[in-house]
Amino acid sequence: MYQLSFPLPQFMREHWQRKPAVIKSGFVDFVDPISPEELAGLSLEEDVDSRFISNADDQWVAEHGPFEESKFANLAESHWQLVVQAANHWHSGVASLVPAFGQIPQWMFDDVMISYSSPHGGVGPHIDQYDVFIVQGSGKRHWRVGAKDEGQYKEVIQGQALRQIEQFDAIIDVVLEPGDILYIPPGFPHEGYALENSMSYSIGYRTPKEQELISQFADYYLEHGFGENHVGTQDIQMQSNIGEISTSTYQKLSDLIYQNIKEPKRMKAFLGTMLSQPRHQLDIAEPEFPYTPEQVEEEFTLGTTLVKTSGLKAFYHEDCSESIYINGEKFDIHHDKQLLDKLCNCESFALADLHIESERTIEVITQLVNKGYWYFQYNY
Ligand SMILES: [Mn+2]
To answer: Going residue by residue through the chain (380 aa), what tens digit of pLDDT does each one get?
Structure first.
């Protein structure tokens, strides 16, 4: 089990979204959860998002996976790196890094990106809009971080797809060794180059832009067929200045908009479904033969564990135990608070720990297992 060597709540109060920080030995005796060979293996998969970036002779080239095995047969000794996005969705060892940061609300969590670099491999100077903890695995990497972007940095596009910036002055200049952590808030330019073969794990967090919230709410509103009536004008007053939008008209129309947005039940359902949508593909495997509720009931007596698909997002609202939101979908859970807690707050749990085995509980679990969101793990 991976455990941070420092108190995360205190760190969050001092640094989160404010200033970058280096935590030497943030993990004591850190051991890589994945090997470079396994990482290369992931980059061959169709469903896995991977990139290969080379920077020999200052020529930046970015290629997108999936790659052929032959790609890895004759690699240069330096100046390249392999990046795999959402590796926690495809590798349980990588997923086991995430609970170390588990007190950070999950709706903000994005993924674990892994980069394996040969000496001098890197991504060049750039700025992200994410919060990230970069954990150094085996090898060493030299990192530089600059002052917060306030419009002073000039953007350059390298190798078509790579958005970089021109050189910057460093406020942090450090060599990370295994177990060290570099935290970078959004808007701080950074660059990192491997000094030797190096594994880096980026635990990333991302919130929606305000414009995404608004536009996605509008999409949700349309999809659910709300507000299809035209605005009523039974009480309309005649005007001598017909080109004027009267104050009462302004009031009426803007109130309509506010009332629609303020409708709490609708807003809760929207936010629950939106925030639980996956941003990276999940390794969801539906069972070959769907379970019946009777078979699921049997699992309760067998000491079976229910395991959540890695990276799957399941949420509920603090003041409402009626519904749960999973993978962008709303499920009625009929105030079964115990089930809601286990599904949303735990990576896995023993069915025996659920004291209520109501018909509805069985029904919900059957549905979730048949969708491939959770799966049974047998402990005998
Ligand atoms: Mn970055």
So the answer is: 899 999 999 999 999 999 999 999 999 999 999 999 999 999 999 999 999 999 999 899 999 999 999 999 989 999 999 999 999 999 999 999 999 998 999 999 999 999 999 999 998 899 999 999 999 999 999 999 999 999 999 998 877 667 899 999 999 999 999 999 999 999 999 999 999 999 999 999 999 999 999 999 999 999 999 999 999 999 999 999 999 999 999 999 999 999 999 999 999 999 999 999 999 999 999 999 999 999 999 998 888 999 999 999 999 999 999 999 999 999 999 888 999 999 999 999 999 888 766 888 999 999 999 999 999 998 66
User: What's the CA-to-centroid distance between 356 and ligand 1, angstroms?
Assistant: 46
Q: How far is CA 226 from the centre of its chain?
A: 30
3-class DSSP state of 254: helix
Report the residue count for the chain: 380
Give the predicted TM-score (pTM) of the model: 0.94
Q: How far apart are CA 125 and CA 146, in angstroms?
A: 10
Q: How far is the CA of 167 from the centre of ligand 1 (A)?
A: 15
Ligand 1 centre and the CA of 176: distance in Å?
Answer: 15
Are 153 and 165 in contact, with CB atoms under 8 Å apart?
yes
Angle at 116 between CA 111 and CA 121, to 5 degrees: 120
Distance 186 CA to ligand 1 centre (A): 9
Residue 20 preceded by cis peptide, ω within 30: no
* Cα of 126 from ligand 1 centre, angstroms: 6
Whose structure tokens read 């025996």? 352
- Facing residues of 320 across strands? 317
Phi-psi region of 364 (alpha: psi -120 to 50; beta: other; left: phi over 0): alpha
Alpha-carbon distances, residue 73 vs 62, 66, 67, 121, 122 (angstroms): 18, 15, 12, 18, 20
> How many Å apart are CA 48 and CA 39, to the nearest integer?
11
Kindly give the distance from the C-alpha atom of residue 188 to the centroid of ligand 1, in angstroms, as a whole number.
9
Residue 194 bridge partners (DSSP): 141
